[in-house]
Design brief:
Strand order of the largest sheet: 4-10-9-6-7
Number of helices: 2
Distance between the termini: 42 Å
Number of strands: 21
Number of domains: 1
Radius of gyration: 20 Å
CATH topology: Immunoglobulin-like
Largest sheet: 5 strands, mixed
Strand content: 35-45%
CATH superfamily: C2 domain
Length: about 300
């Protein structure tokens, strides 16, 4: 099996396959995995959704899913334990098979914050006590899931709402009062020229809605949300805004960049890319995947007609 890792745990999107241009979709590919809700407590319900893109959208294959139930060893450099790189449940308790479909509903384990979060796990017989998992750069922890499309594996995740540990009581109280769970961002629109001539290059501009100030609950589907993050070195809470990344895909032609977006210091609500249309006229599809720095994601599909 040739594993392909879809980095839903990071903002950078896909780890490269052995292709020169990842933005062009030929054979069916799983481009993204979304968790809804984007952040969930232990024991909470979550639905994983897969974006499977293909030139022929009539017969789109569906992936098989599993939930990872195993901590990765401290020496493992990958995003999860190698024992989780399967969708088959062999009865060992390492993974839980979830079934097949473009979306699959499941429940986050009640010990997820011990397996993948800041809660110190119970020691195994004959072993020293384990250590908590290190958070990502936004202070987040994630429950992994695996989707298999044919012989290609993709890794998704849902952000865990584990609370803050290792801080003073006052800081924890402030965190509990100010922290807002992540929600998935939404692409509001894609500006496409009315006419695209075969072989020509056009600028496409994607946009998302601005989120309100941090003292106002964000509406569903805004872009870069505001949140607080704990600085363990200084022992303080820092107000932050999410960074956003856009991954661009098309059934034909070539994008100038495979990824664009905005850093968390940039409050702009759009991102552009240049698409060079195929040399032959015809109908084509563009897929956009928007990811935020706290693990949320969404996508949109657009049709483009290329004329002679």
């Amino acid at each position: 099996m040739k594993p392909f890792y879809l980095a839903a745990l990071s903002l950078l999107g896909c780890v490269p396959e052995f292709e020169d241009n990842l933005s062009t979709v030929g054979e069916p590919r799983l481009l993204a995995i979304q968790a809804e809700p984007a952040e969930v407590e232990e024991g909470g319900g979550v639905t994983f959704r897969a974006l499977v893109a293909a030139r022929d959208q009539v017969a789109v294959p569906v992936p098989s899913w599993s939930l990872c139930l195993t901590r990765k060893p401290l020496t493992e450099l990958g995003p999860l334990s190698p024992e989780c790189l399967t969708v088959a449940d062999d009865g060992s308790g390492k993974v839980a098979a979830l079934g097949a479909g473009l979306e699959i509903a499941t429940t986050v384990p009640r010990d997820a914050c011990k397996l993948f979060g800041p809660t110190r796990p119970e020691p195994q017989p004959g072993e020293l006590p384990g250590r908590p998992v290190d958070p990502d750069t936004t202070g987040g922890y994630y429950q992994p899931a695996v989707a298999a499309l044919d012989d290609v594996l993709s890794i998704g995740s849902v952000r865990l709402s584990c609370g803050l540990t290792g801080a003073s009581r006052a800081v924890i109280q402030a965190y509990n009062a100010d922290y807002r769970p992540n929600t998935n961002p939404t692409i509001a629109a894609l500006d496409i020229p009315e006419t695209v001539t075969a072989g020509s290059s056009v600028t496409l501009r994607a946009s998302w809605n601005a989120c309100p100030p941090d003292d106002v609950a964000p509406p569903e589907g805004c872009g870069a949300e505001r949140y607080v993050s704990y600085d363990s070195e200084r022992g303080t809470l820092d107000p932050r805004r999410e960074g956003l990344r856009l991954a661009w895909y098309a059934s034909g032609g070539v994008f100038e960049q495979e990824l664009t977006g905005r850093e968390e210091s940039d409050s702009a609500t759009d991102s552009s890319n240049v698409w060079t249309a195929p040399a032959i006229a015809g109908s084509h599809t563009v897929w956009l995947v928007l990811r935020d720095s706290r693990g949320g994601s969404s996508w949109q599909r657009y049709d483009i007609e290329v004329v002679p």
